[in-house]
Structure formats: C-alpha cells, structure tokens
Structure prediction request, 494 residues.
Amino acid sequence: MINVQNLRRSFGSITAVDGVSFSVEKGQVLGFLGPNGAGKSTAMKMLACFLKPDSGTASICGHDIIKDPVRVRKCLGYLSENAPAYGEMTVGSFLDFICDARGIRGKAREKATDKIVPMCSIDSVYHQPIETLSKGYKRRVGLAQALIHDPEVLILDEPTDGLDPNQKYEVRQLINKMASSKCIIISTHILEEVEAICTRAVIIAKGKILVDSTPKELKSEYNASLDEIFRKITTTRIAGAKKAIVASAGV
Amino acid sequence: MNGFLAVFKRELKAYFATPVAYVFLVIFLFFAGYMTFKSGFYEARQADMRAFFTNLPILFVFMVPCTAMRLWAEERKNGTIELLLTLPITIPQAVLGKFLAAWAFMGIALVLTFPMPITVAILGSPDMGLIVTGYIGSFLMAGSFLAIGSFFSAVSKNQVIAFILAVVACAVLVYAGMPTTLNYLSTFLPMGLVNSVENMSFMTHFESIQKGVVEFKDVAYFVLLIVGWIGACGIILDERKAS
Prediction:
C-alpha cells in the first residue's frame, strides 16, 4: 500500500534522505529506526505530502504523493513529531475541526468521535483547552486526530515519545489492535517498542537504509539484543562508509 | 470546499476563543471614536461621517497588521502548519480561508461602529449613500491591508517582524498619496511620475469611493491589490512552510 521509490531530499548542503526505497503492505507495522538526524522525520514528512522530494516519488493507496497529494492525505493518518494542535481549542472543538476538514459530517461524525475518544482515552479532557493538557494527553489528542477517519495507512512519528510507561503500553496495545487491518509506519528510538509492535525493522542513518529486516531475524543473525545491534550497525557502517570515501578520495 | 470552510470557521472562532478579538475590538472602537471626535465630528455641524472615514486609514495602518501578523507566523512557529497542510487542505484553500476569516473579523469591527451613523442620522438627515460607500471603501481597504499583512506573516516566523514589515508597507501605500508627500515629490519629479505615485496610493482610491462614486478603477485597484498579495502569500508559503 505504500511504495517508496528512490526518495531523495536535501536541505542546502545536507542530504537528509538519500535515495530511500521500500514498500509496506497491509497488515505490516514497519518500525523506522535510526539515530537523531538520520532522516526519519524528513522521509515521513515527504510521505505525508508536507515536504516535496527533490527526486524520486512514492505512492500511497495507489495515489502518487507528487501528482495527487490531496487524495493521499485523505487516506492517510499522520501524527508528526511534536503532535502539534491548536492550543486555544478544546479537545472537542479540535476534533470537530479535523472532521470538518476531512468532510466527516452528521451521523458519521458522531460515530467517529464516539469511537475514537474512548479508544485514545481522552474522555476526561474532552472539554479542556489543549494548551492546558499534559504532554501525554496532547499526544493522545494527536493520535485521535490521526485516527478519526479510520485511515488505511498510518504514519506516526515517535508516537510514544514523552509518555509514561503505562501510556506507552496503552499506545502499543492500540497499534497492535489496528495492525492487522492497516498499513503502519512508526518511527522510534525505543528499541523495545520495535520488538513489541513491529513486524519489520528498517534502520536508517545519514539518509540511507542500512538494514531492512524483521526484529526476529536481526536478533538471530547478530545473536545480540536490539540495542547492541542498533549501535553496531549505525556506528560501524557509517565509519565504514567514511573510510570508503577517504580511500576513494586518496586515489 | 470542505478544507476552505473548515479553515474559515476555525480561524473566525479562534479570534473569539482568545482575548485577541475583545482587546482588538475595544481598542479599535475607542480610537475610531476618539479620532473622529478629535477632528470635529460635532463642531463641523454637518450630517456626514467625513471625520470618521478620513482618519480610518491611519488607524488601519496599525490595527490591521495586528490581526494579520499571527495568521501564518503563529502556525509556523507552533508547528501546527504541519497538521494543517497534511489534512486534505490545499494551500490556496488554507490561504483564502484564513484571509477571509480575518476580513470577516474586520467587517465585524466596522459594523460595531454603528453608533456613529445612527448618531448622524438622529441629529440630521445625512446622505445614506455616502455613508454606505464610505463603509465599502473602508472594508476594501481593510482587505488590502490584511492581504499585505498575511503576506508578511508568511515571510517571517516572527510575529513582531511580520507586524513591522506590514506596517511599513501599508504606511508607504497610505502616505504616498498624502498631499504633503505629493507636494514634496512634485518639486523634483516630473508630473507624470507624481501622478503615478498618487494613483498607486490607497488614499486616492479610498477618497474617491468615499465621495460616493464607486468607480470600476477604484474597486479594481483594491481587488488587484488583494489578489496579488494573497497570491504572493500562497507562493511564499509553499516555499517556506517547512523551514
């Protein structure tokens, strides 16, 4: 359902995403791993049609992100890094705005909010302005916003960042529950999360995909914990690449 | 259409959800009244609203950029622009929705000056046509200032910078048409250039609408100004939304 082809984007002299290709099918949960500044968020922003790629393209649910961004956004639920929301609005009016923008009206809107509010456990703060909420609640409001139209494809940028262990557990449960019927990409630094929810792990550093595998295979291949594997891959392969560049410059 | 209406509704509500609207309205109405009486609303002994309308451009130069500065700068600073533009909303829909909401808000502010025409109507028998065209001119002018303000709001993430740039741009367009400026310019510029400066200014077109003649060229001036700045705002936003 997601098909990424050779996506590339640079900011000035920094290449944030450097020729990334992969595809994700329905029922898969792809964990996007990588050190800070690896290009995870940039790649996700391009898939959500917020940033335009310099070259390459991707299609989501059969719609091209460059030619048909509005269609893509319609079938996509996107939660960006800091779960931005309009602070002065109450949770209820914020969700109303999202429904307005997504064209969910009348009965369908009632049904959608009735389902999503308990699902993200934000019933108790429904009438509170978003700026007064704690980080955990804010993120869950962001999650509710991304899920309200029951999208086929979900892109979540660090959905559990800043949550306490209980909330993390709840969000993971939520993702697990939806996993079979949707196509999900999440980015995270937390490796236990990958083990808990992802069916696939993609490790990315310096804008390039280093590993595309499953958490299980990785573990059996390296015979170590994911933490160690992550460190090994992201540090040695980058160092290796640097060596190669130096060597080729020497010739 | 969904996207446009959603943005429009949210924006207009947002003014009233925060103290912004109330502070703005109180200050605006106070100064609109103060300047009118200061320049001899009663003393003139005429049943018209000249004293009100002639002072409006100066007040607008400062007040309208206040409402416009937050339009995009705030979205970009808070990161909500990423939410807005990953919903199925296109940039033209978002730009127009926000601009028209702000314009509607300015319309509300103008409507709330209704005690003035009522006073005039009670004390004398004014030419209602003049008052109506005066309001049309003021509303068009507010729209043009807002278009300029929203452009600068898209240029800078910083609201203060957006405000100052918009005030300067609006002030240049207003003051270019003042008689003192034109007299000064005519000392060293050829007549043709002075005339074109005069025609580019707000004042010329605002005054002629205010005189009761709604001419095509004056309306076209404001409409072109709005379309141009709003279009530029959309282009700048597309370039800079993610930076």
Remarks:
- The longest helix of chain B spans residues 128-155.
- Chain B has a mean pLDDT of 90.
- Chain B touches chain A at residues 2-3, 5-7, 9-10, 13-14, 17-18, 78-80, 82-83, 85-90, 241-242 (CB under 8 Å).
